[in-house]
Specification:
Helix 2 packs parallel to helix 3, helix 15 runs antiparallel to helix 16 and helix 18 packs antiparallel against helix 19. By secondary structure, this protein is α/β, with parallel strands linked by helices. It is elongated and about 85 Å long. The strands form 3 sheets. The protein has an 8-stranded parallel β-barrel, surrounded by 5 helices. It has a 5-stranded mixed beta sheet with strand order 9-17-16-12-11. The chain starts with 6 loop residues before the first helix and ends with a helix.
């Protein structure tokens, strides 16, 4: 069970410290690839340290389960407190209760109560046993769930499009607050004056809870005009006139939108607004540039704190500084298998048997990863030979497909420097699932290899991990004696293993002034052979072979690879001037 914090409490803490904060809104994507990209973006934008994020609930509850899972995953794997939208449009009370009970059992404490929009093509209606207004939903949550939930509601600086007058709309907002709302986020608006007048008017009628202005950066001329018409927001003539000369040039419009938002936000902050809520539309660049201009983030927020993806929630009373490299591309699985650990190795990786990894289960093999069967079939096809399987790995390296069972996202930027070599060995049947190039004294600010605070120097040993056939392994094994700088481990699905790597070795480390050397990524022989091996081989079955009928040619070839191939990792201990691929180059010359 997660233990999220109430947004009202975190807002209060920021206000007491007089620290301006910000938050982001996202929506559930419609495709598997879109969802994968969103999780990658959440990881990146978590580095900005928003106070919270919220995730919209599709019209008529159409994305309710996905909204919930995004909120939970954002908390567990990106260290983000999440605020889940909940709408009552065309929704029976039973479905609302189902959602509330689910997130309470999980431990989530933040909901955003809205009337919402009906599904496209339908009209708004109160279903039998449902709610007519957001006020009814707020009241119901308070009556049935007490103070468990922190409830946010929407405010409209230029009135709701369906309300007859601004004054009546304010009365409706006061009713939501009196029913139990804890904070307000406003609809988008493009003048600071409108926001500030709205806040003043709210205070005048006794609304005292925090009010956060909703900021939607202008990204395209026509898109913004259309959005304003849909929600009844006023677009000032001056802004339209400013954009008129370049309204067809989206790049210039976006740059203008950043400056317009910065100017408005500065005025809001100068007038005592405690925080800003950004409608991101699942995009990053404009929001990032606005925050940089406002000096609410700096260059340090654009760097990874550690070289691996996925962060445990910062509010948990435990910290993590070291991970085995094997889960570099499957961070959710590593976090899930170690979430019950009371503490984590600090500085150096210790005994991997204590605390113990959670046993491997279908949760780690499938439920954490969201690509549908249809998407996997579309991307991986129906290979009927080992050579056709090789082509799937090559397609991943080329960026034609975005995921393999062992890779939670597209190929990392740092692998671009070794992409040619990776392609060559995959074509020869060395199916890579993890790799990193050697790095000798790069700046911690380096866009590809950097991590951690500024003014640091980072290093990496080259590493490559792959599946290959027994015959390929035997040919490779003969050559290792000619490359004394290489250590390796090899293991098959039955657990038969051998290799030269005897102890734990750091493969990523960094040095900073006045600080101990940080060694956040290691290769641990015990973990590789006894824990990661089971997960890596099981993924052939759970994610790939299961796509095909029992006995079909595609299933047979995947199961043959899973049962007969070796999983091998190689570490090059010469991080100064060695080439980890030289051994493969020699082998391929011998084969030719």
């Amino acid at each position: 069970m997660i233990t999220s914090r109430k947004i009202s409490d975190t807002i209060k803490e920021k206000e007491e410290k007089k620290e301006v904060f910000f938050s982001f809104e996202f929506f559930p994507p419609k495709t598997d690839r879109g969802l994968q990209n969103l999780y990658t973006r959440l990881d990146r934008m978590a580095q900005y340290k928003p106070l919270f994020i919220d995730v919209t609930w599709g019209a008529g509850g159409s994305t309710s389960s996905l909204t919930t899972s995004i909120c939970v995953n954002a908390y567990k794997y990106s260290s983000l407190d999440a605020n889940m939208h909940l709408t009552c449009t065309n929704m029976p009370k039973e479905k609302i209760d189902e959602a509330l009970k689910e997130i309470k059992e999980i431990g989530m404490k933040n909901v955003f109560a809205l009337r919402g929009d009906p599904p496209r093509g339908e009209e708004w209606k109160q279903v039998e046993g449902g709610f007519a207004h957001a006020t009814d939903l707020v009241r119901y949550i308070r009556q049935h769930y007490g103070n468990w939930f922190c409830i946010g509601v929407a405010g409209y600086p230029e009135k709701h499009i369906d309300c007859d007058t601004y004054e009546n709309d304010l009365k409706h907002l006061k009713e939501k607050v009196d029913a139990g709302a804890d904070f307000i986020i406003t609809q988008l608006c493009y003048t600071a004056d409108a926001y500030l007048k709205f806040i003043k008017d709210c205070r005048a009628i006794g609304i005292t809870i925090p009010i956060l202005p909703g900021i939607m950066p202008i990204r395209s001329y026509q898109g913004t005009v259309r959005m304003c018409k849909l929600c009844g927001a006023h677009m000032p003539k001056q802004i339209l006139d400013d954009m008129e000369p370049f309204k067809e040039d989206d790049e210039r419009v976006q740059a203008y939108g950043v400056q317009q938002a910065v100017k408005m936000c500065r005025e809001l902050i100068a007038n005592g607004v405690p925080g800003l809520h950004f409608y991101t539309l699942n995009l990053e660049q404009s929001v990032r540039n606005i925050l940089l201009e406002l000096e609410l983030i700096n260059d340090s927020n654009l760097r990874k704190e550690l070289p691996w993806s996925g962060a445990r929630n910062i509010h948990l009373a435990k910290s993590e500084a070291v991970r085995p490299i094997f889960w570099a591309n499957r961070p959710k699985s590593f976090i899930a298998r170690t979430e019950d650990w009371d503490e984590f190795p600090n500085g150096r990786w210790g005994d991997a048997g204590s605390p113990a990894f959670d046993p491997l289960s279908t949760y780690h093999l499938s439920r954490l990863y969201t690509n549908s069967k249809e998407t996997r079939l579309q991307e991986w096809g129906s290979p009927k030979s080992e050579e056709e399987v090789f082509k799937v790995f090559i397609s991943y390296l080329k960026g034609d497909i975005c995921r393999l069972p062992w890779n939670d996202a597209s190929l990392a930027d740092e692998s671009a420097s070794i992409s040619k070599e990776l392609l060559a060995i995959n074509e020869a049947g060395f199916l890579t699932i993890n790799s990193q190039p050697r790095v000798n004294a790069a700046s911690s600010d380096d866009p590809s290899y950097g991590w951690g605070p500024a003014k640091g120097i980072v290093y990496q040993k080259a590493y490559v991990e792959f599946f290959t056939s027994p015959s390929n392994y035997q040919k490779l094994k003969v050559l290792f004696s000619k490359y004394p700088n290489l250590d390796y481990q090899a293991v098959n699905a039955e657990g038969v293993s051998e290799g030269t790597l005897k102890g734990i070795t750091a493969v990523t480390w960094g040095v900073w002034p006045g600080s101990e050397i940080k060694q956040p990524t290691v290769v641990d022989p015990f973990v590789f052979v006894n824990i990661w091996k089971d997960e890596a081989f099981a993924l052939w079955h759970s994610q790939w072979a299961s796509l095909y009928d029992v006995g079909s040619p595609s299933r047979q070839v995947i199961e043959k690879i899973a049962s007969s191939y070796y999983l091998i990792n190689i570490v090059d201990n010469n991080f100064i001037n060695s080439n980890i691929f030289a051994i493969f180059e020699e082998l391929l010359k011998l084969k030719n």
